[in-house]
Fold this sequence. Notes:
By secondary structure, the protein is of the alpha+beta class. It is built from three helices and nine strands.
Amino acid sequence: MRFTRLTIVGLALVMAASGCTSGPSLEEAAAELQKDTQRLETDDVFKNPLMNLHIVQRPDKDLPCGGDKVKRVLRATADEERVDESLDSRLDKSQRVMENTLSQTLGYKVEYDISQVDAPEGRFIHGRKEVGITVNVYVAPEAPTWRLHAQTTCLSR
């Protein structure tokens, strides 16, 4: 019995000393969000000046979220040129473009919501990364077409 307790305590100390934690670190999540900003700016679709990509808030500052925890936030907008097509077709296309960008270019696991099909007031896209980042995009019927908000979870410094 004593041997078992000592073994458990020893393993816990080794894990703590080696830096094993149960979740992502702020440094890891913040670095990934910074990479997402760069990937978005250099993406073939969004680097086109006609898309009018605007990084509203860069994820380079710690924002307090209670206690000793902070988060990082990326906010961006982009606009797609309006062509002569129905509102539903334009929203469908814009939603697919952003879902593909999030999943293929930025590496998010996108949650597909069938209840939004044909919603004329806009579409919402949600995604997440294992490193502790969530993203929400509103695909709007009016300009700007995309309104992106990505943030890390609240993490200790």
